[in-house]
Amino acid sequence: MLTFWARRWDDILGLVVEHITVVAVALVIAMAIGVGIGMLVWSRPIPRSVTIAAAGVALTIPSLALLAILIPPFGLGWTPTVIALVVYSLLPIVRNTVVGLREVPPAIMESAKGMGMSPVKVLFSIQLPMAWPVILTGVRVAAQLTVGIAAIAAYVAGPGLGAFIFRGLSSLGSKNALNFALTGTVGVIILALLIDAIFVAITRSTTSRGLRA
Hints:
Elements: H1 2-7, H2 9-41, H3 45-60, H4 63-74, H5 78-102, H6 106-114, H7 119-152, H8 162-170, H9 177-206, H10 209-212
Helix pairs in contact: 2-5, 2-7, 3-5, 4-5, 5-7, 6-7, 7-9, 8-9
């Protein structure tokens, strides 16, 4: 295994960079969409329920099936991969945004309004900062989902370590089949752990001491 890694180090590093990049791009897009939707529906019971239910249904679609559906309109490669990852990221982000905004004590919001703040200013100045740790937890969960699903995206020639996993599985019995599969699998696990640690650090550094306490 060590010999395999030494010989293919450049390829492994390239796939790791691709994997991180596609996950990062998908998370940024999902955050923009998910937090925006959460801000729009958090105080509206029917739209809130419909939105969370729809995101939940999307999450139940098998990843291979969704990727296959995306091939005819978007082809192979990055585009269907990013779209699929965004779809699977929406539920935890939207749900946690709604939960975080609703958990802000009504008394605090009433006090802010009593000081002359508009509802929009209350949302951005009071609610979002207080809901931030909960929102980041949703993004953290979404990151774990996308790291794993990004590997499956090799099915549509997507970027990342999934290429090694599929190459190993498709050549079972050959000399390096197990090396390819294990390298891809171990790489995905290590990336998931590293990204989770990064989100823990981000949460601690961007959350006020009062909320952490």
